[in-house]
Amino acid sequence: MKFTWLGHGSMRIESGSTVLLIDPWLTGNPSLPEDQHEAATAGGTHILLTHGHFDHIADILPLAKKLGVPVIGQYDLLSHWGEHEGIEAVGFNKGGTVDAGGVSVTMVPASHSSTVPSPDGPRCIGSEVGFMLKAEGKCVYVSGDTDIMADMGWMGEYHAPDIGILSAGGFFTMDMKATAWAARKYFNFQTVIPVHYKTFPILEQDASELIAGLPGVDVKTPEVMELVEL
User: Fold this and answer.
1) Which CATH number covers residue 119?
2) How far is the CA of 204 from the CAs of 42, 82, 127, 195, 209, in angstroms?
3) What are phi and psi of 178, to 5 degrees?
4) Beta-sheet pairing, 115-116 with 97-100
5) Nearest residue to 147 via CA among 197, 182, 100, 123
6) Is residue 110 part of a domain?
7) CA 92 to chain centre
8) At what angle do helices 176-186 and 151-159 cross, to 10 degrees?
9) Residue 167 class from Cβ within 10 Å (0-12 exposed, 13-18 middle, 19+ buried)?
10) What's the rounded Cα separation, in Å, for the pair 190 and 141?
11) Given 39, 128, 150, 194, which residue has the most CB atoms within 10 angstroms?
12) Which pLDDT score, from 0 to 100, does residue 115 have?
């Protein structure tokens, strides 16, 4: 499997001919230069969405229409989009599993929020989630934006992910120290890739505490658009 961090919480995962774009944030993403947008999304076959905040949702609809690919995510929002936005939408819910071009995608809980602004204040658009992706004999846990939660206990035992793509920047999600603690307590990762950091000054700027807190785990800290193959 091939992994490319697109900055912030966005990730590109390739397995065979399948290219998953997870929360692909292009417009206004300070970590991903505009001249890299095309390369970041080229060949995408599926878009996965974890929740409705602007830094995850802003480019989903135009990108899905441009690429002509399905969007996979939480039932309430995706059902609405499928009916009203003219895209192919695969809406399911926590505990469910769908196929994405040979990659098994299981929706799991996260602990965050999922709102967009409206004239009447914040509007909830479904719930925040993560994903367990299974392909090529591997299981990848994409945490989405989340804090530590007790659900990680059964998720680690039941799905036994080898690879963790974990929010770790603090302020909005777990920080590096908390992410390391959760990874040690609940999972047995071989590899961890931190995301949702370095984007803004309020977020953690390096992964040193995560690396120090996970001895024996291969913590990858690629630059934006740097390919990692596992």
Assistant:
1) 3.60.15.10
2) 29, 36, 25, 10, 10
3) -70, -40
4) unpaired
5) 182
6) yes
7) 16
8) 50
9) buried
10) 12
11) 194
12) 87
Residue 155 belongs to a domain:
yes
CA distance 127 to 94: 10
| Reduced DSSP (H G I as helix, E B as strand, rest coil) percent helix, strand, coil of the chain, to 5 | 25, 30, 45
pLDDT at 51: 94
In this structure, is residue 81 part of a structural domain?
A: yes
Element (H, E) at 129: strand 129-135
**Does the residue 79 lie in any domain?**
yes
- The pTM of this model reads 0.96
In order, the DSSP letters of 12-39 are EEEETTEEEEES---TT-TTS-GGGHHH
Give per-10-residue mean pLDDT for the chain (230 aa).
98 98 96 96 98 93 97 95 95 97 98 89 90 98 97 98 98 97 98 97 97 98 98
| Residue 117 structural domain | 2-222
User: Count of residues for the chain?
Assistant: 230
Q: How many distinct structural domains can be found in the chain? A: 1
Question: Among residues 50, 7, 5, which one has the least CA distance to residue 144?
Answer: 50
- Supply the pLDDT for residue 133: 98
pLDDT at site 212: 98
